[in-house]
Design a protein that fits this description.
The chain has 276 residues and is α/β, with parallel strands linked by helices. It is built from nine helices and nine strands.
Length: 276
């Protein structure tokens, strides 16, 4: 059995939001309980599941636990905000119910932030159903203006500041994580631990943060992609990509696919030049 590293008081607030899917919720909770350190509080936000999920069969031990249930379905983003406003920890880790953590996730990221006080967000690698997601060691503003290279909400550990709540408080239906990372990057450093610490479930089930349809998803995507993006060709790339994915006829998909292919070459060139 693994020996846990004990801490004097909770330094981390783990915020797990969920809607239905009791089996996934309990799996996620069990992986949180199995973390190699004890210095965290656990905040569970039930976003008005169809049937209240009973957790009486879970042994939480001496974990500081807060369990609330929304009176109506508010969505993942507002549920995270509710959890964040209850958080007492110096560091924040959000958690989606359909992902789960490796047992050293909190310990490794906590140690990294304690040793690197100039870093505000620390990400890590993640394993999906089919591959390993590897993120840049220090994601640049340019890279973050192109795509989400920090990961989903389940992946990073974040220092708790008022700016986090401000950036999380938005009306986006999707791409909220990307918006938060882009916003935080304007003020702070972001780094990545090159180790797989999260299993990110990219299956076809309905994720709490997923788009109900492709048009809705790319509407939010485009809003985030164009925030403070002044490069005309980069803006054109995002617009072309959205039109390609949202086109419903072969002809228009072919046209937008061609322009996206060309503009993607420009994007890769920008990233290549930045590396030097």
């Amino acid at each position: 059995m693994r020996t846990k590293v004990d801490c004097k008081k909770p330094e981390i607030s783990v915020i797990l939001t969920f809607h239905n899917r009791p089996d996934m919720v309990k799996r996620a909770i069990q992986h949180i309980i199995n973390q190699s350190i004890n210095c965290y509080e656990l905040i569970l936000v039930d976003d008005f599941s169809a049937t209240a999920i009973s957790l009486s069969d879970i042994n939480f031990g001496d974990i500081a636990l807060t369990h609330i249930r929304n009176e109506v379905n508010l969505g993942a983003n507002q549920s995270r905000l509710i959890g964040l406003r209850l958080a007492k920890g110096k560091y924040i880790c959000f958690h989606d119910d359909d992902d789960y953590w490796m047992e050293e996730k909190l310990e490794i990221q906590l140690n990294y932030l304690n040793k690197n006080p100039n870093v505000h967000v620390v990400s890590c690698y993640a394993r999906t159903n089919s591959k390993i997601l590897k993120f840049p060691s220090e994601p640049s503003s340019l890279a973050l203006s192109i795509h989400n290279c920090v990961g989903s909400f389940s992946i990073p550990m974040i220092r708790n500041t008022n700016l986090l709540e401000s950036f999380l408080n938005n009306d986006l239906t999707n791409a909220q994580d990307w918006h938060v990372w882009r916003s935080l990057k304007k003020h702070y450093l972001i780094s990545t631990v090159p180790k797989v610490l999260v299993f990110f479930d990219d299956g076809q089930h309905d994720r709490i943060s997923s788009a109900k349809n492709i048009d809705a998803y790319y509407s939010s995507y485009l809003r985030v992609a164009l925030i403070d993006t002044v490069d005309i060709l980069l803006r054109a790339y995002h617009y072309s990509l959205v039109k390609y994915h949202c086109s419903h006829t072969f002809f228009f998909r072919l046209c937008w696919g061609g322009s996206t292919f060309i503009l993607r070459r420009y994007v890769k060139l920008r990233l290549w030049l930045e590396a030097f």
